[in-house]
Amino acid sequence: MSEDPDYSRGFGGAALAARLRRASERLDRDGARVYAAHGVRFEQRWYGVMRQLVEHGRPMAVGEIAAILHITHVSVSETSRSMEKAGIVASVAAVEDGRRRLLDLTDEGRTLAARLTPLWNAFNGAARELDAEAGELTRLLDRLDDALDERSMFDRIMARTETDQEPD
């Protein structure tokens, strides 16, 4: 009996979003398995926020982190709330303006970051290896980002639906 065909692959470029989601889920799932295998409670979605706090070595605003990572403020807020519940980050008042809230690593977060550094180095090495094996996919992703910056998927779809619609 033959294997089931890969539904998404059969659509080629038309399944771009589905294929990217699938690849992301596979990578995140394997990352979670690595953390679990090393007895570490860490969610892959925390990485970007934690990495910024580690690299900058200072409290940072949610908006600042979102801008650096090119993701939404809402996404960083949701992630940071989860990290706060886990005791990894704390929300602190900005020195210059007490009404402004900043994220900072807790002592537990700093300890965790130090423990994770060798794992992150292994993640990075494996990612570079996979990228090379896949034909430098990151270069193609750069091109995809540039193409989306030039003209969003929304605009591309709307242009197609507007020309396909009949007048009222």
UniProtKB/TrEMBL annotation:
InterPro entries: HTH_MarR-typ, MarR/SlyA-like, WH-like_DNA-bd_sf, WH_DNA-bd_sf. Pfam families: MarR_2. PROSITE patterns: HTH_MARR_2. It comes from Caulobacter hibisci. Residues 13-146 form the HTH marR-type domain. This is MarR family transcriptional regulator. It comes from the Bacteria.
